[in-house]
Specification:
The complex is a heterodimer of chains A (about 270) and B (about 375). Chain A is built from twelve helices and two strands. Chain A has helices spanning about 1-20, 25-40, 45-55, 55-80, 85-95, 100-140, 150-165, 170-175, 175-180, 185-200, 210-225, 230-240, and strands spanning about 250-255, 260-265. The longest helix of chain A is centred in the middle third of the chain and has 42 residues, at about 100-140. The radius of gyration of chain A is 34 Å and the shape is elongated. Chain B is mostly helical. Helix content of chain B is about 70%, strand content about 0%. Chain B has helices spanning about 10-30, 35-55, 60-65, 70-95, 105-120, 125-135, 145-155, 155-175, 180-195, 200-250, 250-275, 280-285, 290-295, 315-325, 335-340, 350-355, 360-370; strands at about 295-300, 305-310. The two termini of chain B are about 30 Å apart. Classes of the chains: A mainly alpha (about 270), B mainly alpha (about 375). At the A-B interface, α1, α4, α6, α11 and α12 of A face α4, α7, α10, α11 and α13 of B.
Chain lengths: ~270, ~375
């Protein structure tokens, strides 16, 4: 059926044209070009099928699809400077060297599983590094009055978790890429770095002065407030949170300007 | 795939999943020769169907299927059957036994996919593209698959049936967002737009992954800043609660130290934010989305972040008054006692929630106001 072959050639030509133009599917574009070449040589469909089989087009199509898919992943990993870059490079080499579809499929499965495992470890590291950052910032600004020993233990615990996820907390903490993601001001990083060093060395901050100051504030407030117990009660009762307080629940919804609120229940309502 | 009349209907989520499995199953089983691979896939699919029909909801189905390791078994059976089919086809080709498939047979998988997409309201563009694609076939004879493919390619439909689903997913997720969540809206819109402009699956994969990575890198900085501001709001609340407890009971031993500590922490935290992040309360909370973040008590409707249960709308201004009048100037508490209290409005207690069926009232109100909520639309529209 010459008409069917002509239609087929047209389909191959159009697909090749589209894929070639994207720049993202060079291997598949080449396969379509090759199939078009075969289709142009063949007088009829059986001859096309024979040439198709002789050139191992099925295997090469499978390989080309895999190469395009993982070349795009590698390109993204390179452009975004991601750690999976070498894994994709290695996978592409294996896809090129494979002799059959089963081998290609096996190599892809194994690489994809490995990359997923690696990403999971990275997420774990990130989660615990973030916990460290949170603990450090609290230590940096609250430390005079905190249970510092507990916080130090928490930081050490998080550091161990990072190590369990095959990371190095010290190196990660100083990693400029990681720090850039948090966009914290440089001066704040310097403060956090100092606290991090104290944690690692187990150096406790001197809390004596702050605690003495706090104690003095406590004593002074106690002295001032004691005669005002009655006033305190009065103050409390004047507050919405006293016996007659109006507890309420609301539902809000977005409007182009902001949000509208609707009271659903208020103390005293059914 | 609904049960017979008089019997309970299958859970919609389970049904959608089963349609998806059936599409894959149908595309293999009809062509695969009898043998171990075919038997294993048939058994796994039969078990999946039995379980889907027997389970009242997705959670039960998922738990039972997980306990039987059914998902993995089905996945392995599918891989084995696909490989067997490929080898079978190669053998047939070598032996010159290839049977030409008809256009109807070729389109069977696409018809299955169309049924699957039709069950999801947000997949309108995908449904339209599949219908258009299948519509093209009506002009071709059963043996003219090449003619059909050439015309589908000419109309750009071979690409669109693969990328339209990606567009619908991102545009659908966008519609669930709060219209004031500009960063997420920008991210989802960029992904949806990419799905419309990509010229191949690989280009789409590359561009979307880059957009996701760009958002992922921006997120820690934003989230951490937000987390620090939430700490400030939390300290102000701690101060207020300790103060109320102390004033209500007069129990200095229990509450005074906590009160002074909370006040000190709130002050230090605010100073840290101001010094290191140039934080300005009025400027930050001038944005409605930032205000919402503090008084949001949770989302009520599934898949809708434009409607939510809220704290009293005045809660934030009360917190500001406490911060700027009782915490930052650091007046003595004896002086605070003499002042008119700001008072952060309180929410219902758990026992009140149960007694007055508040959760049910919240859900009913949310459903009623939802049509008035403005939802973000995707700026990039398919033709």
């Amino acid at each position: 059926m010459p008409e069917l072959m002509a239609n087929y050639r047209e389909y191959l030509r159009l697909t090749h044209q589209r894929l070639d133009a994207t720049g993202f599917s060079p291997h598949m574009a080449r396969i379509y070009s090759l199939m078009l070449e075969i289709a142009e040589q063949a007088a009829d469909e059986p001859e096309y099928q024979r040439l198709h089989a002789a050139r191992k087009i099925d295997l090469e199509t499978y390989r080309a699809q895999a190469l395009d898919t993982y070349t795009a992943r590698l390109r993204q990993a390179q452009d975004d400077d991601l750690p999976e870059k070498p894994f994709y490079e290695e996978l592409l080499q294996k896809i090129r060297a494979a002799d059959d579809q089963e081998t290609i499929s096996r190599e892809i499965n194994s690489a994809v599983n490995f990359i997923a495992e690696d990403q999971k470890k990275r997420q774990n590291r990130e989660y615990h590094m973030r916990a460290i950052l949170d603990q450090l910032i609290q230590l940096a600004f609250y430390s005079p009055l905190l249970d510092v020993q507990k916080f130090f233990a928490d930081v050490r615990h998080s550091m161990n978790k990072v190590r369990e996820a095959e990371g190095d907390p010290e190196r990660h903490f100083r990693d400029s890429k990681w720090r850039a993601e948090y966009r914290l001001p440089e001066k704040l990083w310097l403060i956090l770095e100092a606290v991090f060093a104290d944690c690692q060395a187990g150096r406790m901050p001197n809390q004596e002065a702050a605690q003495a100051e706090f104690r003095a504030e406590y004593d002074q407030t106690l002295k001032e407030l004691s005669p005002l117990k009655g006033k305190m009660r009065e103050h409390y009762e004047a507050h919405d949170g006293a016996k007659e307080q109006k507890r309420s629940t609301w539902v809000a919804y977005a409007t182009p300007e902001g949000y509208e609120f609707e009271c659903v229940w208020m103390k005293g309502s059914r | 795939m609904r049960m017979d009349e008089g019997q309970p209907l299958m859970d919609p989520q389970v049904e959608t999943m089963l349609i998806s499995f059936r599409t894959g199953y149908d595309s293999i089983i009809g062509m695969l020769a009898d043998g171990e691979a075919k038997d294993e896939l048939t058994q796994a699919f039969r078990r999946m169907t039995e379980l889907a029909e027997a389970c009242p909801d997705f959670m039960t189905f998922s738990t039972k299927a997980g306990a039987e390791n059914l998902f993995m078994r089905y996945g392995e059976a599918t891989t084995k059957a696909s490989t067997a089919l490929q080898m079978q086809m190669q053998e047939e080709k070598k032996a010159g036994k290839t049977r030409k498939i008809t256009l109807t047979e070729y389109l069977k998988t696409y018809r299955g996919l169309l049924d699957q997409h039709k069950s999801k309201p947000h997949m309108a563009f995908t449904v339209r593209m599949h219908e258009k694609f299948l519509g093209v076939a009506e002009n071709f004879s059963e043996d003219d698959i090449p003619g059909f493919l050439a015309e589908a390619e000419r109309q750009g439909l071979l690409l669109k049936i693969s990328t339209s689903g990606v567009y619908d997913e991102w545009a659908g997720n966008l519609r669930k967002l709060d219209p004031h969540d500009h960063k997420l809206i920008e991210h989802y819109s960029a992904c949806a737009k990419t799905a419309l402009s990509a010229r191949s699956g690989e280009e789409l994969d590359y561009l979307i992954n880059r957009e996701i990575e760009k958002y992922r890198r921006q997120a820690p900085g934003d989230e951490f800043r937000w987390f620090l501001i939430l700490r400030l709001a939390g300290s102000i609340q701690d101060y207020e609660m300790s103060k109320l407890s102390l004033f209500a009971t007069g129990d200095f031993n229990h509450y005074l130290a906590g009160l002074l500590l909370a006040r000190r922490l709130a002050k230090d935290w605010y100073e840290m934010l101001r010094t290191h992040f140039n934080f300005d309360w009025d400027e930050y909370f001038a944005h409605p989305f930032n205000r919402k973040q503090v008084i949001n008590q949770g989302f009520v409707l599934p898949d809708c972040m434009a409607v939510w249960e809220s704290w009293h709308p005045d809660a934030l201004s009360a917190m500001k008054q406490i911060l700027f009048e009782e915490i930052l100037p650091y007046p003595s508490l004896a002086e605070v006692v003499q002042r008119r209290p700001a008072g952060i409005p309180a929410t219902a207690l758990p026992e009140q929630k149960a007694q007055f069926q508040i959760d049910e009232k919240v859900a009913a109100t949310a459903r009623r106001v939802q049509p008035q909520a403005s939802l973000p639309m995707c700026s990039a529209k398919p033709e």
